[in-house]
Amino acid sequence: MPRIPSPAVAAAGLVGGYAVARWTKKRPLGGAVLAVAGGVAAREWQRAGGAKAAVGLTAGYVAAFAGSHPLAKKIGAWPAVFSVAGGMAAASWAVTRGKN
User: Fold this and answer.
1) What is the pTM (predicted TM-score) of this model?
2) What is the signed CA dihedral for 35, 38, 44, 50, rounded to 10 degrees?
3) Are the C-beta atoms of residues 99 and 49 closer than 8 Å to each other?
4) Most exposed of 22, 44, 45, 65 (fewest Cβ within 10 Å)?
5) Cα(36)–Cα(9) distance, rounded to whole angstroms?
6) Which pLDDT belongs to residue 97?
7) How far is the C-alpha of 37 from the C-alpha of 12, rounded, in Å?
């Protein structure tokens, strides 16, 4: 089975989680999307970079989610979500590049 690149999964989880929560008006549903994508990304980070990479990037994923909230107050919701998603994708790529 082909693997989905972990940077894409992480970014899609952040963007998709927000989109689902916003459009359905059901925050827990958006949280479920965020969590499932985070789990898939963590599994790929573990495969590509080992336990340290997976733990560090998972912490970064949670921090990106949390950090998007105060950032949204400054630049708007969608720009904040896209900013943290891009940052998370870049971090994931930097840690796992060439290891997939």
Assistant:
1) 0.92
2) -110
3) yes
4) 22
5) 10
6) 85
7) 7
Q: What is the pLDDT along the chain (100 residues), one digit of tens a residue?
A: 567 899 999 999 999 999 999 999 999 999 999 999 999 999 999 999 999 999 999 999 999 999 999 999 999 999 999 999 999 999 999 999 876 5
- CB count in 10 Å sphere of residue 37: 22
Using an 8 Å Cβ cutoff, are 32 and 12 in contact? no
DSSP element (H, E) containing 57? helix 27-75
d(CA 31, CA 20): 9
100: which residues sit within 8 A by CB, 6+ positions away?
3, 5, 6, 44, 47, 48
Whether the Cβ atoms of residue 14 and residue 84 lie closer than 8 Å to each other: yes
Of the candidates 70, 68, 90, which has an alpha carbon nearest to the alpha carbon of residue 80? 68
CA distance 90 to 58: 14
Decide: 92 and 53 in contact? Cβ < 8 Å.
Answer: no
**pLDDT value at residue 25:** 97
